[in-house]
């Protein structure tokens, strides 16, 4: 790249959730910018498909199968990564999602919340960030420098109807991001940073039925979101690339403990 401040060439990035809609777009972009992507995921077929896509675009990628909610699997994946590359520069925690049982529908009351579904959502979004951080941190400690980027959500800071479990888990991610930023800088030095990106509303597989009808038109909820987004549209995956590259690069060397909204102004708008 022309500007070395934002240069990612040679960076080694471990990336959970890379096979999702937004994760795939981000991982392919980072690979095009010269980073090597180490894909962490459960589905071996999806991992291999993404590796093929990245390599066909001239990038470098390797895959490591693991369920980020299973500590033994995460530990094993970290050991395999260490054998393969020795150390990493960046960890991106993008694994997450929701499930119907952890949603409180308009015709449903909180009393009927499915506690088992809630636990699964909390485990995926929160524990699925804690465990990779715990086991991949040593691969950054080895070079006395590290950079962790978590994926938060608008639902973390502005609790929304229905998505009770998901919103609670993402609020925990915001707190964890700030806590880890202090913990790592204080105990391991100023070259360790932890930040998060909080995407606004992007159409993904997990929210498509909430936001759009079968014919592609907006649901009532979809319309409410657009009305509260000053830029008057849903986000596109490429809208995340600028903030992502900034946080991955030395351009943000003095930035830690922050949650960066990429939301078209949603979080800034009071509605009037």
Can you walk through the features of this model?
The structure is a single chain. This protein is α/β, with parallel strands linked by helices. It contains ten helices and seven strands. α1 links the parallel β1 and β2 (36-41). The chain is globular, with a radius of gyration of 18 Å. The chain starts with 11 loop residues before the first strand and ends in a 10-residue tail after the last strand.
Any chance you could write out the topology, listing elements then pairs?
Blueprint: E1 12-16, H1 21-32, E2 36-41, H2 44-56, E3 60-65, H3 71-85, E4 90-93, H4 115-136, H5 138-141, E5 146-151, H6 154-157, H7 164-188, E6 192-199, H8 208-211, H9 220-227, H10 241-248, E7 259-262
- The CA-CA distance between the termini, in Å, is 42 Å
| Percent of residues in helices | 40-55%
The count of DSSP E runs of length 2 or more, i.e. the number of strands, is 7
From the 3D structure, determine the CATH topology. Rossmann fold
Q: Which sequence of SSEs, written as H and E, runs from N to C?
A: EHEHEHEHHEHHEHHHE
> What's the CATH class, please?
Alpha Beta
Biggest β-sheet description? 7 strands, parallel
Q: Give the oligomer, counting copies of the same chain as homo and different chains as hetero.
A: single chain
